[in-house]
Amino acid sequence: MIIEKISREDLPMILQLQHLAFAGEAEEFNDFEIGPLKQTVNDLDEEFRVRVFLKAIDEDGSIIGSTRGYIENGTCSDRGRGAGGLEILSPGNVD
């Protein structure tokens, strides 16, 4: 697995993965109006301008996960986004 910054071209796939990741939660609570399911590519693009987006890709080059965060004190942090995030990554992964 490789961790790298995403590009704007990755946003549709990131959104698709996000919808898949949160579909179970929406079904469990019968609430399909949760933020991650309502988010659009345009919403992600706005976040992309101010946050660091990282993707995990497998050996075939497929995106298998992602997270977004901020650079704080030289470290990329997702500020406790929970189990779905990559938590804290070294600055070397976001250069």
List the helices and strands and how they pair.
Elements: E1 2-5, H1 11-29, H2 35-38, H3 41-48, E2 52-57, E3 63-72, E4 75-77, E5 88-89
Antiparallel strand pairs: 1-2, 2-3, 3-4, 4-5
Q: How would you describe this protein?
A:
The chain is α+β, with helices and mostly antiparallel strands and 95 residues long. The chain has one domain: 3-Layer(aba) Sandwich (Aminopeptidase), CATH 3.40.630. Helices cover 33% and strands 26% of the residues. It has three helices and five strands; from the N terminus they run E-H-H-H-E-E-E-E. The chain has a five-stranded antiparallel sheet. A hairpin with a 2-residue loop joins strand 3 and strand 4. The longest helix has 19 residues. It starts with a strand and ends in a 6-residue tail after the last strand. The C terminus is likely disordered.
CATH topology: Aminopeptidase
The CATH superfamily is Gcn5-related N-acetyltransferase (GNAT)
Mean pLDDT: 82
Query: How many domains make up the 3D coordinates?
Result: 1
Count of beta strands:
5
Q: Characterize the overall form.
A: globular
Taken in chain order, the helices and strands follow as EHHHEEEE
Question: Which characteristics define this entry?
Answer:
95 residues, alpha+beta, Aminopeptidase, 5-stranded antiparallel beta sheet, 3 helices, disordered C terminus
Give a brief rundown of this model.
The protein has 95 residues and is α+β, with helices and mostly antiparallel strands.
